[in-house]
Amino acid sequence: MWENSQIPIGYPVVKVDLPGHGKSSDPDLLRDSIEEMAKSVIEVMNELGLTTYHLVGHSMGGYVGLEMKRLDDRLSKLMLLNSNFWSDSAQKVKDRIRVAEIVQTNKSHFIYEVIPNLFVNPEKFDADVKGLIAEALEMSPDSIAKASIAMSRRTDHTDFVRENSKDFTIVQGEEDPIVSLAQMRDLLKGSDANYIELEEVGHMAHFEAREQLNNLISDFIK
Fold this sequence. Notes:
The protein has 222 residues and is α/β, with parallel strands linked by helices. The chain has a domain at 27-88 and 155-221: Rossmann fold (3-Layer(aba) Sandwich), CATH 3.40.50.1820. The chain is 47% helix and 11% strand. The protein has a 4-stranded parallel sheet, sandwiched between helices. Helix 1 (34-48) crosses helix 2 (60-71) and helix 3 runs antiparallel to helix 5 (141-152). The radius of gyration is 17 Å and the shape is globular.
């Protein structure tokens, strides 16, 4: 997910595989709660002996980052990338539960259908889409199911973000099919959060707007 982002030279970087993802796919690592995922990542920060850090969280990673920000005073600044801070609607909760059921019997179909639709123009990023599909196919059905359930149960952090808005950078794709642009604009009215909208970008800004995002991450870190 992060191989396309060039973090500015001179800054140490930790790229974390969330529970169920990448090399953290052992069944014993699976979590069905965003808070528990956050605690798992905080354990990594403890192991590394970090005293302070910034975090960039994409999509579900942003949800995990919000819980980490709440739980860990060492987390200074948080970038929510193609992510949000509110809880799911009742319909969205039903949709996520349905996903958890579908992947148990038809994981491949789900992955091939969903990933291209995260891009405004998937044909333009054909190699990236194929790479993401190949990685997703390596995930177990239980990993995807538990992640979907965890997202459906996540806490609404709207008040938390507004109360600590200066600690947040929020990067939104103007054509994101997952995160509502109208809802984001409405909930950030009067907020001091650093809010950026990217044109012709869907849910995958680190692929669809590589150079622009790299510059934003550079500014965020500095």
